[in-house]
Structure formats: structure tokens, C-alpha cells
Amino acid sequence: MRGSDVTRIQNSKDREMTQTTCIIFFEWTATADFTHHAHTASVSAVATSERYIATGSRDETIQIYDMKKRVEHGALLHHDGTISCLEFYGSSHLLSGGQDGLLCVWSTRNWECLKSIRAHKGQVTSLSVHPSGKLALTVGTDKTLRTWNLIDGRSAFIKNIKQNAVIVKWSPEGDKYVVVIGDKVDVYDLETATLTSTIINPKRISSIKFLTNSILAIAGDDETVRLCDINTQKVLCEFEAHETRVKSVDSFTVDDFCVLVTASNDGFIKMWKLNLESLEPPVLLGKVNTTARLTCLAVWKPTTLQEPPPEVKTEPTTSHDVKDVLELEKKRKKRVRISTVEVVQEEDASPKKKKDGGKKKLKT
């Protein structure tokens, strides 16, 4: 690969909404690495780790690709309904959320479903794992924001947000998190347990990306990408990225600058050179026309592809880091009812699926 960067693109056309394309960015030109019809319906979510790429679809499956061997690794079967969100924690775990309201935790060592949690009464629309790996946030169509203790698979806190949130995300340092509702971004500070600021976007927001712990890239139902400071609520930089609405944004770093990658309904993927110090308007490095209607995007950057670290313990623990974060969360509400949630067994959560341990390996 010689240090080249790979972006995972999910394509869905009006009639053929099953195509998955991997494109290599080499010397700021884009060529298709491989194209694979991985799903029988449109792709709805994508996530990358050091070694793997995961795609979720409306066909109720999660497809796994091994980027070290450049092969399709297999499929995970557990959810009933659309896979709405995916996120890797490091190289050891994958978390998935779906239309069935389940939050699932998978081990990347053997792709076993370690936990299956009935997270929301409606669809899980977004999830985010704390940098410590001990907590996760989810939002759903039941208009709640929930904090999960991933050690014992139980709900720590439930917050009614009175509206359907579409995105939730921890900051890189884990001291803040943001919740996207329509055209606004609510910023919460974990230490003070308060809503610290709200950023209003001119249009409905479809994608966000933390470039630093305070700079947030925001894209929505227009052609403009805005870089905002979540502390001051100021727009630091904005530029017209596409001719139609921007569907997804992601980023990676090269040397001393940031590369912002944008995908749009116009079928184009563009790479922008961004200086986070000066925050001048970015320079277009390259673009590619996929001739498809893009639904989501994620960047995979090759590394040494080392073996995953040992599994995180799944039994209850009294570690101080978990206690500290939970203690800070308690401040959000003086009186909070800690509810016990049902940890659903695999066959109970998905009675229509085959009893195969929650996964079906197509290839090894």
C-alpha cells in the first residue's frame, strides 16, 4: 500500500442499491480498489478499524471485510431490520445498533456477539463509544439519550430529550459529547454535567466529525461544510464543497495538515487540505465521480495491522475510571432513576434468525 489511504464508500442507486466500492487515494488521485455487491438492499452504515471494514444494510446483515487479506470475511446475523449505526472500539470490538432497538457488542477476535442489549423501544439511530471503552451513548426514536455501562451491559442513565436525535458523538478526549437534533448541535460538558452551548446550522444536519477536541465539522442539507468551535459557537470556516447536499464527512491526518473527505448526493467524493492552525478555506486535493448516490462514507487508513489486544473483561468491575465517569454523569440530573435493562439472549432477540451464535461466517 506504501502509505496510501483508503476510503470506504457506500453506494445506492435508484434501482441497484447494493454496491459497495473501496477506493484508494494515491498521490491525490482516486482509483477503485474493488467493487462488491455485498448487500441485497441499500447500505445504511459503515465503520472502519485498523484491520476491518464493516458495512450495515437495510437487508439486516453486517458484512465484514479483512483489509489485511483484501477479502470478504463474512456476515454477522443478529438484528431484525435495518442496521442503522456501526462503530469500532479500537481493534477489539464492534458495536452495532438497529431498527429493532438492539445494541450489540461483537468481539473482533472470533466475531462472537458478547452482549445483546434492548437499548431503545424504537430504532437506535446513533451510538458512540467513550474513549475509555467503558461507556457508550445511544439515541433512538423513543426520544431518549441513554448511557450504557459496557462492563455489565446495563443502562446507567436515561435522559428524555423530547425530540428524535439523529447523531450522538463523544469528543476525542471524552470530556464532552454532542447530540444532533434536526438543524442544531447540543454540546454537553461531562465535568459540569450541563448543556454548555448550542450550534444552529442553516439546514438539517446529516453528518458531523470532530477534527480536534473543540473544532467540529458540520454538513447537512446544503452544499456547504462548516467548521465550528463548540466552546464559542462561532463558525471558524465555511466553504462550498459540492453542488448538492453533503451526505457525509470524515477526516485523516497527513504530516502536519488535516485531510477532510466529503461525499455528496451528486456522486462525488472530494479530498480537502485543511490547516487547523490558520483555518483558511481548504484547498481541493482531488475528487472522484462514483456515478452513484452516496449514502455514507468512512476513511480507512492502513497501519501496521497488528493483532488485536487481549479481550476486555466482560465481568463486573470496580475500576476507578468507570466510577469517575459515571459519577460525572450523575451530575447531569440530581435525581435519576437507574433502570435495569434486559440483556437479551441471542435466540430471544432474533427468533427468526438461525441459531448460529449470532453470526454466520461466509469466509474465514
Automatic annotation (TrEMBL):
Subcellular location: Nucleus, Nucleolus
SUPFAM superfamilies: WD40 repeat-like
BP-aspect Gene Ontology terms: negative regulation of signal transduction; ribosome biogenesis
Disordered as annotated region, ranges: 342-364
Stretch forming the signal peptide: none
InterPro entries: PAK1-Kinase_Regulator, WD40/YVTN_repeat-like_dom_sf, WD40_repeat_CS, WD40_repeat_dom_sf, WD40_rpt
GO CC terms: nucleolus
Keywords on record: Nucleus, Repeat, Ribosome biogenesis, Signal transduction inhibitor, WD repeat
Pfam families for the chain: WD40
WD repeat start and end residues: 36-68, 76-116, 117-158
UniProt function note: Negatively regulates the PAK1 kinase. PAK1 is a member of the PAK kinase family, which has been shown to play a positive role in the regulation of signaling pathways involving MAPK8 and RELA. PAK1 exists as an inactive homodimer, which is activated by binding of small GTPases such as CDC42 to an N-terminal regulatory domain. PAK1IP1 also binds to the N-terminus of PAK1, and inhibits the specific activation of PAK1 by CDC42. May be involved in ribosomal large subunit assembly.
Protein name: P21-activated protein kinase-interacting protein 1-like
Gene transcribed to yield this protein: PAK1IP1
